[in-house]
Recover the amino acids of this structure.
């Protein structure tokens, strides 16, 4: 038999194993996507593998902001859909987050104090999974006066980003209830752009 004949036999023998390996790789990838989808709270569905961006968000600009209801530290209730018609800023935070502590005084001085009396603007801090006593102390320590809500278990956070993703995030929502900006960590240029966006929407 020729060398060419033996080569063809070898290819025919190895081909099924190659295909099986490709199928296993695809199945593993599909399982990974399914695992990520399973981590998303009920009512949220990832569309594809690209739905989670590099910053951990599961929402994107142009999406209708997922609705939620939370209790503020003063006992009052807040429902996002009740703010329709206003520009809304959601600030995800926690007392243990050093970057949050750095950013919050700027949110207080450059955004809240500027727009707090404007009926077309709403700012809400959302503290991830901490008891109210700790959150009240956190508010005093940072010197902020804007309202802060409690997010037990981080369930509202998980409507916007992967549950295990980091905080220091701001979500800007236009009067139609759609997301127009998403920030992560504290960057002076990004913060300035966020202030500009809010100013254009409110005015």
């Amino acid at each position: 038999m020729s060398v060419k004949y033996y080569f063809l036999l070898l290819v025919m023998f190895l081909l099924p194993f190659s295909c099986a390996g490709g199928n296993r790789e695809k199945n593993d990838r599909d399982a990974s996507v399914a695992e990520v989808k399973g981590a998303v709270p009920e009512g949220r569905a990832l569309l594809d593998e690209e739905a989670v961006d590099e910053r951990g968000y599961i929402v994107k600009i142009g999406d209708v902001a997922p609705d939620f209801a939370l209790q503020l530290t003063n006992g009052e209730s807040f429902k996002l859909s009740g703010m329709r018609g206003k520009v809304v800023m959601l600030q995800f935070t926690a007392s243990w987050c050093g970057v949050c502590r750095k950013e919050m005084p700027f949110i207080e001085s450059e955004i809240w104090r500027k727009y707090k009396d404007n009926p077309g603007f709403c700012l809400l801090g959302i503290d991830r999974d901490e008891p109210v006593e700790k959150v009240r102390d956190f508010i005093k320590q940072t010197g902020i006066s804007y309202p802060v809500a409690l997010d037990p278990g981080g369930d509202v956070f998980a409507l916007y980003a992967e549950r295990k993703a980091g905080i220091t995030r701001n979500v800007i929502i236009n009067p139609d209830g759609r997301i127009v900006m998403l920030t992560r960590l504290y960057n002076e240029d990004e913060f300035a752009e966020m202030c500009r966006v809010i100013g254009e929407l409110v005015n």
